[in-house]
Design a protein that fits this description.
2 domains; five-stranded mixed β-barrel
């Protein structure tokens, strides 16, 4: 007897740019293609992490024209036609709708497991258990399941999900009704949420039948649903002409705003799986192994009276003397030096470089 996981298809979102990891990240080498933690790029780790549940032949990756060739090279097990280059960036709702049509054509009972390509999961066994529970519950037509993450701090950069009543318990996982969504609250509100124990982080991971998603999309965003249906009628994502003609006309909006926050029968599974969105150099620092003084540095570096630094420099000896809590990243054409605690602001530097016309560095 087959289980819901046998009808699960991974939809991996790999279209981001990751400007906060400049100068290592560039338009043609975005964050998901970087090796920031562990072995292999974040994208490769994402595909490998789910392999035992969802094999590469049931994986779809959505990315940009600029990096599709590199994604194909890095993911030899994923069928080439399932690595889709979107001709225009339209945010997550059109991408997921496009994927739903692809999956439904292949499997009328197909279940979508929507995942970011650039996150780290420190407890993969727990992650697998969560996905199995979410697939089993989300296999029922009409249900939408979010993977909620137990917060570890009052973070203002994430969305929050307020828990409603307990719906069920599957495979050791509690599933709740989702009561309320809040995007990026201020610091005081975030602290209140975390202290209450009633909220989870929204990590952008969703599980639902492809048919459920398309039905909800048609109800909430009928024009988008129609545009995507036209692409599907002309052969789907594999028809580059249809994609170039029709896809850029689709509304640019996130799946959260377009659908999730507007429908009923939304549930959330509470997960504690060592999650990180690796959103800045400071978070990359926290994930990686450190020397006795708390430095993350290349082997052979000399860090005298220095602590808490992250150093990414290749091909030369690095010596630091009396400096603390810095990020130092060098590429052949650029050097970044900033306070680790202010590494979120690297994205602002990228915006300024673009304003100055330095596209050669982006």
């Amino acid at each position: 007897m087959s289980s819901p996981v046998d009808h699960a298809y991974a939809v991996i979102m790999a279209g981001g740019s990751g400007t906060r990891f400049w100068p290592l990240s560039r338009r043609k080498r975005p964050k998901q293609l970087l090796e920031l933690y562990g072995s292999g790029s974040l994208l490769e780790q994402t595909v490998e992490r789910i392999r035992s549940l969802i094999p590469p032949e049931r994986v779809y990756v959505f990315t940009s024209d600029a990096v599709r060739r590199e994604v194909v090279r890095r993911l030899p097990g994923v069928p080439t036609e399932q690595i889709v280059a979107e001709p225009a960036s339209r945010n997550t709702a059109p991408t997921i709708g496009l994927a739903a049509n692809e999956i439904l054509r292949r499997d009328p009972g197909g279940i979508m497991v929507v995942l970011p390509s650039d996150h780290v999961i420190g407890k993969p066994a727990e992650f697998h258990r969560v996905l199995r529970a979410a697939c089993r519950f989300g296999a029922v037509e009409g249900r939408s399941v979010l993977i909620g993450l137990k917060p570890t701090r009052a973070e203002t950069g994430y969305g929050y999900i307020r828990l409603g009543p307990l719906a069920t318990r599957l495979r050791g996982q509690d599933l709740y009704e989702a009561r309320q969504f809040t995007e990026k609250p201020d610091a005081a509100t975030a602290k209140q949420y975390v202290d209450s124990g009633e909220y989870l982080w929204n990590g952008g991971m969703f599980v639902w039948r492809a048919s459920t998603l398309l039905r909800n999309l048609a109800a909430c965003k009928p024009e988008m649903a129609q545009g995507l249906a036209e692409i599907a009628a002309r052969g789907g994502a594999g028809n580059s002409r249809a994609m170039k003609e029709l896809y850029p006309k689709v509304e640019k909006v996130s799946i959260d705003y377009a659908v999730v926050e507007r429908i009923t029968d939304v549930f959330v599974v509470a997960a504690d799986m060592g999650w990180s969105d690796v959103g800045s150099w400071a978070e990359a620092y926290e994930l990686n192994a450190k020397d006795a003084a708390g430095n993350v540095a290349p082997s052979g570096s000399l860090c005298l009276n220095s602590s808490g630094n992250l150093i990414r420099v290749e091909g030369k000896l690095v010596v630091t003397v009396g400096v603390d809590d810095l990020v130092v990243v060098e590429t052949p054409d650029a050097l970044l030096v900033c306070r680790r605690q202010r590494s979120q602001e690297v994205g602002k530097a990228v915006q300024e470089l673009e304003r100055r016309g330095r596209g050669d560095l982006l």
